[in-house]
Amino acid sequence: MATDRDTVLEAAVGVLSRRPTAHLDEIARAAGISRATLHRIFPGREALIREVGLLGLRRFAAALDTAGVEEGDAEAALRRLVDASVPDAMLCAFLAGENQLYDNDEINDLWELQIARLHALFLRGQQQGVFRIELSAAWLSEAFFDLVAGVGWSIQDGRLAPRDAAFSLAELFLGGALRRPDAPSPAPTTTDAPPRST
Length: 198
Description:
The chain is 66% helix and 0% strand. The chain has helices spanning 5-16, 24-31, 35-41, 45-67, 74-85, 89-97, 105-127, 137-156, 162-177.
């Protein structure tokens, strides 16, 4: 039976998101294949990690597309993004935790493209009066992505039920990000460059 490449990648992210130094043997076991089969699909650890990173970025791009983040009311767009991104929260956790990914130019370029779209959503929301303007759009983007990653880790560790994940994420994030009607209106910050993964 042929081994599905994406199935192996999904198994790998389940291991690597919590144990970045896990051996290839552990990843092969999680995927239900031998190490030799894993090596035939991915010639080495670096290639495997790169492919998991690319899968994560493709899925996050798809979530942004599905949510239509460039369209309409920014709060509604963000709620759609929550629903679209939670199913792949573990991949976001991997992207947030695997810093070596960003030594790769292709990964870096894809990351910058996707985070710029998120950044633009928060800027638009600030212009619409939806999101707080005393918090930079760059910081809101970073905080949102890291919370999605936290959802992934919490589900994996059994601290958050998958059925509660979207509600928990939306309520926690929007509880701090939405502009309050009684809040003063300070000048927007000037440090609004799109963030990079840490």
